[in-house]
UniProtKB/TrEMBL annotation:
Protein name: ABC transporter ATP-binding protein
Ranges of residues in domain ABC transporter: 5-244
UniProt keyword list: ATP-binding, Nucleotide-binding, Transport
GO cellular component: membrane protein complex
GO MF: ATP binding; ATP hydrolysis activity; transmembrane transporter activity
Top-level lineage group: Bacteria
Family: Belongs to the ABC transporter superfamily.
PROSITE patterns linked: ABC_TRANSPORTER_2
Keyword Ligase: no
Family matches, as PANTHER family: ALPHA-D-RIBOSE 1-METHYLPHOSPHONATE 5-TRIPHOSPHATE SYNTHASE SUBUNIT PHNL, LIPOPROTEIN-RELEASING SYSTEM ATP-BINDING PROTEIN LOLD
Keyword Ubl conjugation: no
Length: 255
């Protein structure tokens, strides 16, 4: 089976002469269809940098990133933006919703921009509204709903075009624990039912325990990876804590 996402010897260096910082030293990984993968590690380990480089937001200094077998370096700007719109979904900590649009309008925006038919848009909206349980609030505006509801709206928008790959950077970072659990349960059902492939950066062991596999990075390199397998979420949570403890650093930074 071909990986959906593949990185080979990815290196990312910030700055220039005299003031150079290596955020990613040498990362190689493969993500397969239907995986739900977490990226964890101490603050400054390079998690967001890795997600940005894997998700086309940023370019590696060297090394290759391939999505569905396509080398991202071979795409021009126009092709890349179509590719992003059709194949990738992005969810960030700070929602990025447009306050002047209702939640419904925010969610359907990617399909409306891509000029899909009304019937098609309604069908997709129906699906995401169920996955993220937001049907009753679709006509509200972002300023009228909670952080958890905003994030479920942002997640609905990210998946409405049925992307191959969903990238989430600290999606639960601003949520209370109940809202975080609701969102993560929705990610799990999306992953189980639609076989969506999800890659999520989190510093939170609870959030990570919903994943099927976790990559731990430190100092810009993969330290280790673990699979949930047949473990319960609670057992997996404990295993994550054990690794974080071995990883060292300030535990307050990473749990
Ligand atoms: N644009 C930039 N210019 C220079 N250095 C940067 C830039 N972005 C990130 N860095 C540095 O690269 C390193 C990795 O940053 P990154 O944001 O990927 O870490 P992280 O693991 O996501 O951290 P956190 O959990 O605190 O968000 C950090 O030391 C950071 O200061």
């Amino acid at each position: 089976m071909e990986p959906v996402l593949e990185a080979k010897h990815v290196r990312k260096v910030y700055g220039s002469k005299g003031n150079v910082y290596t955020a990613l030293a040498n990362i190689s990984l493969e993500i397969y269809e239907g995986e739900f993968v977490g990226i964890m590690g101490p603050s400054g380990a390079g998690k967001s940098t890795l997600l940005n480089v894997l998700s086309t937001i940023d370019q590696p200094t060297s090394g290759e990133v391939m999505i569905n077998g396509r080398d991202l370096e071979d795409m021009d700007e126009q092709e890349m933006s179509l590719f992003r719109r059709n194949q990738l979904g992005f969810i960030f900590q700070d929602y990025n919703l447009l306050d002047t649009l209702s939640l419904r309008e925010n969610i359907i925006l990617p399909l409306a921009l891509a000029k899909h038919s009304v019937a098609e848009i309604e069908e997709h909206l129906d699906f995401v509204a169920d996955v993220f349980s937001i049907r009753p609030i679709l006509d509200k505006y972002p300023t009228e709903v909670s952080g958890g509801q905003k994030q479920r709206t942002a997640a609905s928008r990210a998946i409405i075009a049925n992307p191959n790959l969903i990238f989430a950077d600290e999606p639960t970072g601003a949520l209370d624990s109940k809202s975080a659990a609701d969102l993560l349960e929705s990610f799990c059902s999306l992953n189980e039912e639609r076989k969506s492939t999800i890659l999520m950066v989190t510093h939170d062991a609870f959030a990570a325990s919903f994943c099927k596999r976790i990559l731990f990075i430190t100092d810009g390199e993969i330290y280790t990876e673990i699979y949930r397998g047949s473990k319960t979420r609670k057992e997996f949570f404990q295993k994550i804590l054990d690794i974080l403890a071995k990883l060292g650093g300030n535990m307050n930074d990473i749990i």
